[in-house]
Write a sequence for this structure.
């Protein structure tokens, strides 16, 4: 089972408006407390069985995030860009060699079972830039592994908080908002020095316990203070 990149010609052929439609349908996929509707289509492309999956919940989330950036006037986010990306939003193409006896839902479940590992590696490589970090010294290798583990645990905590917040925002969008706030630790509590009301609500829903300093912009003289 191989995931085809968006640049693959079979992927472009599958999302094209004139693409031939094979057997298709939809199912509800549930994992833990998460449930979503997945549309699927089973095609034969270049002599290979290729399954086209579209996670409708993920598609809506990506589209909502893109539209938010358009409303904020973020550079590079345009209606033309949205139209070009829309056919690929929430879409996963899998080339399968499991035979017609395995249903689309079975193949999707197998793919999702291994996806958590792939996501973690992608976070290390693209999220943390952990590339070309080959080490021959055992102690350095163990130290690097520990740092990556702590980083992954922090990211997991943030992701869980984002999902539980009900904000409907991706972790990336939340961090974009959060980085605009200067926080300071004073008398054992974290306080915001320049926090707008909407960002304060964001932190509240993320359950951070962040409070706003009465006089925004002032930096308390405290040895624990940090930006």
């Amino acid at each position: 089972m191989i995931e085809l990149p968006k640049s693959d010609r079979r992927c472009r052929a599958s999302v094209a408006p004139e693409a031939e439609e094979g057997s298709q349908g939809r199912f509800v996929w549930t994992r833990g407390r998460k449930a979503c509707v997945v549309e699927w289509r089973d095609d034969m492309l270049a002599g290979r069985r290729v399954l086209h999956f579209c996670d409708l919940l993920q598609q809506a989330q990506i589209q909502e995030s893109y539209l938010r950036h358009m409303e904020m006037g973020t550079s590079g986010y345009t209606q033309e860009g949205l139209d070009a990306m829309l056919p690929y939003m929430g879409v996963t193409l899998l080339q399968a060699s499991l035979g017609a006896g395995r249903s689309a839902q079975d193949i999707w479940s197998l793919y999702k079972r291994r996806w958590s590992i792939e996501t973690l590696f992608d976070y290390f490589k693209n999220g943390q830039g952990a590339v070309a970090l080959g080490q021959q010294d055992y102690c350095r290798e163990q130290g690097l592994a520990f740092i990556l583990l702590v980083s992954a645990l922090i990211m997991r905590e943030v992701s869980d908080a984002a999902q539980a917040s009900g904000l409907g925002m991706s972790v990336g969008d939340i961090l974009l908002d959060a980085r605009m706030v200067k926080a300071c630790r004073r008398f054992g509590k974290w306080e915001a020095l320049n926090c707008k009301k909407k960002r304060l609500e964001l932190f509240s829903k993320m359950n951070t316990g962040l409070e706003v300093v009465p006089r925004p912009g002032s930096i308390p003289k405290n040895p624990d203070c940090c930006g």
Notes: The chain is about 45% helix and 20% strand. The chain has two domains: 2-114, 135-227. The helical segments are 9-15, 56-72, 79-85, 104-127, 138-165, 171-178, 197-205.
